[in-house]
Amino acid sequence: MTENDLFDRGLQVRREVLGVEYVNANLADTDEFMMAFQRIVTEWAWGYAWSRPGLDRKTRSILNLGILAALGRAQELGIYVKAALTSGVTADEIKEILVHATVYCGTPAGRQAFLAAHEALTAAGVLPDPPEDQTR
């Protein structure tokens, strides 16, 4: 398989999981310098790792959420919450993943992960907007 084949396969999977609009916007904002990174991500993560037969996309999404929570990568976690929903992970499962990650990674990482996931789930329409006054 050539690098171009791996990129093409990765681009297809990346669009299926993250959404066509998100991926196309990422690529549209990429200059020649940053395209080196886009190629690495698309070929390695999506063309190689996400395309392997050993795990389904739901399982890979669950792993990503736990890994990103552990690394304290809240911004990336927010992106992958939408991908997890696309891959069949429910909001309740995301909550349980983050509870588990909080226990093993600590409350600061867990808090950031919960906040990022809550924002992404609310934006996706999976969770209702919070009430105006929560002090009552």
Automatic annotation (TrEMBL):
Span of domain Carboxymuconolactone decarboxylase-like: 37-119
Pfam families for this protein: CMD
Cross-referenced Gene3D superfamilies: AhpD-like
InterPro entries on file: 4CMD/NDH-1_regulator, AhpD-like, CMD-like
Membrane-spanning parts: none
Molecular function, one GO term: peroxiredoxin activity
Coiled-coil blocks: none
Name the UniProt record assigns to this protein: Carboxymuconolactone decarboxylase family protein
